[in-house]
Amino acid sequence: MYDLAKVRADFPILSREVNGKPLVYLDNGASAQKPRVVIDAMTRMYEEEYSNVHRGLHFLSNLATDKYENVRAIVRRFLNAPNDTDIVFTTGSTEGINLISYGWAAPRLQAGDEIVLSVLEHHANIVPWHFLRERQGVVLKWVEPEADGSLAAEKVVEAIGPRTKLVAITQMSNVTGTRVDVKAICAAARAKGVVVLVDGSQGAVHGPVDVADLGCDFYAITGHKLYGPSGSGAIYIRPERQAEMRPFLGGGDMIDTVTREGVTYNSPPMKFEAGTPGIVQQVGMGVALDYLMALGMENVAAHEADIAAYAQARFAGLNWLHQQGTAPGKGAIFSLTIEGGAHAHDISTILDKRGIAVRAGTHCAMPLMEFFGVSATARASFGLYNTREEVDALVSALELCHEFFA
């Protein structure tokens, strides 16, 4: 039984008001709020348990190291990865994808080699590949979605050619909530000898993930969207791919020995984790993932499916409201525009006066904005603590926007 009232009580910020109205937080796609258990765990670590990790033999260093390294096992369970050593800590998906670009792709791809991308991608899964296009002559092959924002796995597979070395694909669009059948893409790509990176920044938030079942080579997550702190994250890397990678960052922890003449590297995953890490941030992410697993990601997905269906039903009665991306089975993420010249920033500002937080802009997805023929949208992205009543509050505020600009 999913006890929504209890879940909401776990998040202190949801009890506050904004502009004299109860907070309706619908900007989860950008960054989710944090439950009390995460806040308390991070506070306790700073107040009672903090020390650097991997470097000391004293009590606090050993305690901090144990807590920090335990998160690797938590991430492994959350993603159903085979081994703890498959998990590399990062500051988030952006760093994780850049790690693969610099550490795996750059030394292996040559001019004329291809990377297949979709137009649904976040800039974090576009810009690192443009670096390789600019610097090494790598070719980017783009796959467009359908008019409703859906993306058929077959179209992605058809784009794979003799010189394709990598498919970099999102599991869920941060703009439309479109779900992509990455399992089918991974299976087809693997049969062709092509490596697949999955951007799980949104996909991991809204339902169970099983990287062993997906068959991907890389899977990136970011902690702050998973109800953990910013500056935390991880990437699953298949052991075969780890063996092919060079280090991205150099410094402490990622080395075995350093001499005047040379350096030998530590074993993965440490080989890819240089310097003092975000110790408390990663511990906070571990607590957040434990919180999600205790709720049950299947239960989270079911709750959000109910919210999404209710929102779609309410939006259907607003003939002046346009939704960018209506793919079947989409997640509870809605990009919206209003007839009459209301800019997304205007919509967001008016909604904010009612205590409703949404995102306005291009959502780091300019190619998708261009595809839909809009300069910006107002995005309402729902999470595990949102309610039907908050959908009603959003619709009421959107009606005010329409009246104002009609």
UniProtKB/TrEMBL annotation:
Signal peptide: none annotated. Its cofactor is pyridoxal 5'-phosphate. Keywords: Pyridoxal phosphate, Transferase. It is an enzyme of class 2 (transferase). It comes from the Bacteria. Residues 24-394 form the Aminotransferase class V domain. InterPro entries: Aminotrans_V_dom, Aminotrans_V_PyrdxlP_BS, Cys_dSase_SufS, PyrdxlP-dep_Trfase, PyrdxlP-dep_Trfase_major, PyrdxlP-dep_Trfase_small. Its EC number is 2.8.1.7. GO terms for biological process: cysteine metabolic process. PROSITE patterns: AA_TRANSFER_CLASS_5 (PS00595). It catalyses: (sulfur carrier)-H + L-cysteine = (sulfur carrier)-SH + L-alanine. GO terms for molecular function: cysteine desulfurase activity; pyridoxal phosphate binding. Belongs to the class-V pyridoxal-phosphate-dependent aminotransferase family. Csd subfamily. NCBIfam families: sufS. Catalyzes the removal of elemental sulfur and selenium atoms from L-cysteine, L-cystine, L-selenocysteine, and L-selenocystine to produce L-alanine. This is Cysteine desulfurase.
